[in-house]
Amino acid sequence: GSLPVRYLGLPLVASKPTFMDCKILVDKLLRRTSSWLSNSLSFGGRLQILKSVLFSIQVFWCTTFILPAAVLKKCDSILRSFLWHGLGNSKRAGKVAWWKVCRPVSAGGLGIKDSRTWNRAAIMKCNCSWGWRNILASRKFMHRRILYEVKNGNTFSLWYDPWFQGETIASVFGQRVILDSGLPRNAKVSSVVMDNRWDWPLISASLLEISNTTALIPLSAGCDAIHWLKKGSMFTIQEAWKAISPRSQDVPWYKVVWFPQRIPKHSFCVWLSFMQAHKTLDKLTRVGVVSSNACVFGCGQGESLNHLFFACPYTVTIWNFFLAKYGF
User: Which residue range or ranges hold the Reverse transcriptase zinc-binding domain (predicted)?
Assistant: First the structure.
């Protein structure tokens, strides 16, 4: 055999993988993007392949390793190149910035997940030793989104689990309160519960404050529970990705573009229109690619996005034909 040894397609390494360890992932993406007759695929077709096939190739890696930044950047580069040019190794720029493409569909993007954010979300389900040490760097992020629900108190640490208003008692009141209580450091919440009622030793001012605060927390005979964001909500990589991703305001037109019965090729074209990304002649004239911006339909006016889709007499004739056909 050869090093590194692989299992289920992944390198068996005892530390964070290097770029060379992950080269098989990069090579696999490049092979897949070169195996299709990409020139015959529309943008809509490439988008479907990217979401359903190409992105799934890296999912297993992202849920197992914290991938090197260079690998994640390369994966995004391959996906971006395939979307815009049909090849995974093209150096040409895309029509729309990648960060805009990676926005949710409702926010005007294409709903593609950028590799770095997806890796951060996916690795939260990993519990391997070296990965866990890296996950600890995300404690603050997780801490703000996990809800501890106390019921019988048999599961949670009394002092070191954040069940007390989202914080640990030890972090709020310090170690002194543990000594004052006379309870062990490994005590469970159930140590201060009797007959489904709170029963704190009221020895110090801090313990009295804790008692008054916890009196508002109802108890029951059920098992303690941990929720994601809110009660009844379970952790999923998808929800973690949404929480990590930058907030984006919804755009009012996304349902016009991505309606259920859409034709992907046409929807992508309309999306490019809303993103002002079509290379119309007025843009090409400004950058010196062509010398004239005269409308290709010979109407004598200059070609722009609004003219091409709405103001050109040829376009108006087409719109009027279909509007009349469908009773508008």
Answer: 235-319
Q: How many CB atoms lie within 10 A of CB 100?
A: 15
d(CA 15, CA 19): 13
Which structure tokens are listed for 20? 């060379």
> Can you tell me the distance from the alpha carbon of 64 to that of 128, in angstroms, rounded to the nearest whole number?
8
> Hey, which bits of 154-202 come out as E strands?
193-194, 197-198
The CA distance from 108 to 270, in Å, is: 12
**Sign of the C-alpha dihedral computed for residues 80, 81, 84 and 87 taken in this order:** negative
What is the reported pTM? 0.75
Q: How far apart are CA 44 and CA 110, in angstroms?
A: 10
From CA 64, how far away is CA 247, in angstroms rounded? 26
Helix or strand or coil: residue 232? coil
Q: What is the pLDDT of residues 109-166, one digit of tens each?
A: 999 999 998 888 888 776 554 555 655 656 666 777 788 899 989 999 999 999 998 8
Whether the Cβ atoms of residue 52 and residue 113 lie closer than 8 Å to each other: no
DSSP 177: H
Q: Residue 221 gets which letter from DSSP?
A: S
- Contact between 162 and 148 under an 8 Å Cβ cutoff? The reply is yes
Cis omega (within 30 of 0) for bond into 4: yes
Longest dimension (CA), the chain: 91
Q: Which residues contact 27 (CB under 8 A, 6 or more apart)?
A: none
Q: Which two structure tokens, joined as six digits, stand for 80? A: 């971006």
Rounded Cα gap, residues 110 and 113, in angstroms = 9
Other Cβ atoms less than 10 A from the Cβ of 179: the count is 12
Rounded distance between C-alpha atoms, residue 270 and residue 42, angstroms: 13
Amino acid at 86: G
Q: What is the per-residue pLDDT across 269-288, written as a single tens digit (0 to 9) for each?
A: 999 999 999 999 999 999 99
Exposure of 268 in the CB half-sphere (CA atoms within 13 A): 18
